[in-house]
Specification:
By secondary structure, the chain is α+β, with helices and mostly antiparallel strands. It has two domains: about 180 residues, no CATH class; about 240 residues, no CATH class. The protein is built from 17 helices and ten strands. The protein has a six-stranded mixed β-barrel with strand order 2-3-8-5-7-6. The two termini are about 30 Å apart.
Length: about 425
């Protein structure tokens, strides 16, 4: 009977090609609009590190006081003084501080021009905390941090560019006239959004190309390649040491805490540290610290671009309008067949038979609309750069899951939209139709 109902539906759709085309186009455009914007929203709102998002935390310390804070919140980064105090205390099992760096790579081949490579100055725990995968070698160790060694981890892309993809561990690379020994090559790794560096507005930036020890970068006076926020409490200063000892925030901190007890203990440590700074005369306000995990941090920083939420809401509204239009078209189409329904009912067909026939016909419309929606979705992906920033637009991908979701939404939405027209058609009275016709 299912095959028979499909044949009846196909024959009915062929009777009025224009009406069928209108329904297919309505479903196709509505589904495509919603799927294109959903692809963007999915890319920018996912959990970038789901296996550890509840154990990685951002500790923040208020070094400005209520007079200069925004909405009572402390700055979104740390000063060098506070960052080093947290590292020395070592109250977390793993901890790291980081800031972005931009260094000029000097190729060994004199025929090739130097080029800029961006990355981070960080601590050895960075790679373990964030589950960074490696193609060759590994990260450096705490001994290299303490010794301020000139070691480096490079990305797979940079390794391909410089060494043709060969194992480069142990070789040297020159950056800004400084020589570094390569200890590891990361595999493809680019979490989106880049949760660990929201302060520098690098949520959707290109993948990092290199990592060097934080201690070495500071010892060599390698400046931050990101934001340096001195607020209203002072200026950067005239020298490197005055900047380090000042109140400018520029370092992103991260700690790993495994359970609620460790989180509570770390909060107490932060408050105790802030009280010590107040007793020492540096602060003159009560402790105002924060400790947020990855998801809380992303929510607080509004990591999901507002235009993606607005676009998704509008596109879903457009899909609803298209479905309402489809309801009207199906209702007109089904009610025009009232005489046919009356004869079928008089010959013994039940209301369930009418439901099965017309819902199968609606499913065929949804299938055709889904195919059209897929084509329009693929076309819409090409134009995302007109609506979103390029680094966000290129994150949206038409993968297998989106294809399946598009077809599922198209078919299920059309079938749901067909319930009311089908119910009205099933209420046709056979006797009245036979008398009137």
């Amino acid at each position: 009977m299912f095959i028979h109902n499909l044949r009846l539906g196909a024959a009915s759709l062929r009777r009025n090609v224009l009406l069928t085309a209108l329904m297919v186009m309505s479903i196709g455009f509505g589904v495509a609009a919603s799927m294109v914007t959903f692809a963007v929203f999915r890319a920018v709102s996912g959990d970038p590190i789901p296996q550890k998002s509840s154990t990685l935390f951002v500790p923040l310390i208020d070094n400005r006081g209520p007079e200069y804070n925004r909405h009572g919140e402390p700055p979104s980064a740390l000063t060098y003084t506070d960052a080093m105090a947290l590292m020395r205390a070592h109250k977390a099992a793993r901890q790291t501080m980081l800031f972005p760096v931009g260094l000029s790579v000097m190729p060994d081949d004199p025929h090739h021009m130097p080029f800029k490579a961006e990355g981070y100055a960080t601590y050895s725990d960075f790679f373990t905390m964030f589950d960074v995968p490696f193609q060759y070698g590994s990260g450096w160790g705490s001994a290299q941090d303490d010794a301020r060694e000139a070691v480096i981890v490079i990305s797979r892309a940079l390794n391909q560019k410089l060494f043709g993809g060969a194992n480069s561990v142990g070789r040297e690379i020159t950056l800004d006239d400084r020589h570094y020994r390569i200890v590891g090559v990361t595999d493809n790794w680019d979490p989106k959004p880049r949760f660990f560096d929201i302060f520098d507005d690098k949520l959707f930036a290109d993948p990092s190309q290199l990592y060097i020890p934080f201690t070495y970068a500071v010892a060599q006076h390698i400046d931050t390649y990101g934001n340096n926020n001195c607020g209203s409490v002072g200026k950067r200063g005239d020298s490197w040491d005055s900047w380090l000892q000042g109140e400018c925030v520029w370092i992103s901190p991260w700690v790993e805490l495994q359970d609620a007890a460790q989180v509570l203990a770390y909060r107490q440590f932060l408050d105790g540290y802030a009280r010590e700074q107040r007793d020492a005369g540096r602060f003159n306000w009560a402790p105002n610290n924060r400790l947020r995990d990855v998801r809380e941090w992303l929510d607080y920083q509004h990591a999901v671009p507002p235009e993606s939420r607005i676009s998704l809401t509008l596109s879903l509204g457009f899909l609803v309008i298209c479905l309402v239009n489809t309801v009207g078209l199906l209702l007109a189409k089904f009610m025009r067949r009232a005489p046919e329904i009356g004869v079928r009912r008089a010959l013994g067909a039940s209301r369930a038979d009418i439901y099965r026939q017309f819902l199968a016909e609606a499913a065929m419309v949804g299938l055709a609309g889904g195919v059209l929606g897929l084509a329009l979705t693929a076309t819409g992906m090409l134009g995302l750069g007109l609506v979103f920033q390029p680094q966000i637009a290129r994150l949206a991908q038409l993968d297998a899951s989106l294809v399946l979701l598009t077809m599922l939404v198209a078919i299920s939405a059309t079938v749901i939209a067909a319930f009311y027209p089908t119910w009205r058609a099933a209420q046709v009275q056979p006797a009245w139709q036979l008398k009137s016709n």
